[in-house]
Amino acid sequence: MPRFAPHPHRRPALIAGASSGIGAATAVALAELGYPVALGARRVDVCETLAEKIRADGGEAFAHRLDVGDGASVDEFVTAAEKALGPLEIVISGAGDLEFSHGWTMDPEVFQAQILVHLVGAQRLAHRLVPGMVERQRGDFVVIGSDCADHTRPGVGAYNAAKSGVEAFARQLRMELEGTGVRASIVRPGQTQTGMGMTATPEVVGPLLEDWVKWGFARHPYLLRASDIAAAVTAVVSTPRGAHLVLVEVQPEAPLREQDSGGK
Q1: Per the residue annotation, which of 15, 159, 161, 164 is the catalytic one?
Q2: Of residues 39, 8, 9, the one with CA closest to residue 22
Q3: What gap in Å lies between CA 186 and CA 94, rounded to an integer?
């Protein structure tokens, strides 16, 4: 006898922050594996375009506006998504943005807004969806963290605090949910090429990169792709019940060195 009932055949997944980057790549990756996906972001037109592509490729997708900073928006989204796809078995909390700034010069309102979307947004999703998972005694709640949570970087404004907070929240959930059948997990990307922070000017990015090199954060120029993080997310949620990938950190592999000839 298995210790746990297997995952149900149908496992609808909510992806918060699905309009670009890691969220969009995760939606595509999950849909390709047969998961029905609910795509949520403030740019609902972009989500709908992605949903149409997923459906054209044979997948099942639903798109609706989602602002994780607004409790009413979260409730409306979940209600509509579950009406369209059924009870949500998987939640990927990845909504967020990045604005470069010194922590002490960033406008406090902007700092607060960054914390709101990354951290409070994750809690809003958990508050709305985890009770149903606990009742069903199964489910995956996955937060997209950052290696900033483990190795703080200069010049990223509220991002360090936000990602440290959301990872701490996920670790807390894991302890609180032990024995319920619900798995809380962290997927922690290293430096990844996404749309976040890409609007910054060279005048901002140049000194920032110099600081990163100074503090040892730029060992090589290779960056992860959003699809690399999506692969990690699919591994976490696809793991059979009875095992739990608690933390998956993904770092870019370095460029290959020339082989040492051994003096020949």
Answers
A1: 159
A2: 39
A3: 11
Residues paired with residue 57 on neighbouring β-strands, in sequence order: none
pLDDT in tens, 181-228: 999 999 999 887 765 555 555 565 666 666 666 556 677 777 889 999
Type of residue at 208 = L
Contact (Cβ atoms closer than 8 angstroms) between residue 37 and residue 241: no
- What lies within 8 Å, CB to CB, of 190 at 6+ separation is 147, 224, 249, 250, 251, 252
37-41 and 13-16 beta bridge pairing? parallel
- Going by C-alpha positions, the residue among 156, 152, 157 that lies closest to residue 216 is 152
Helices (H), the chain: 21-32, 44-56, 71-85, 108-115, 121-136, 159-177, 202-214, 226-238
159 is catalytic: yes
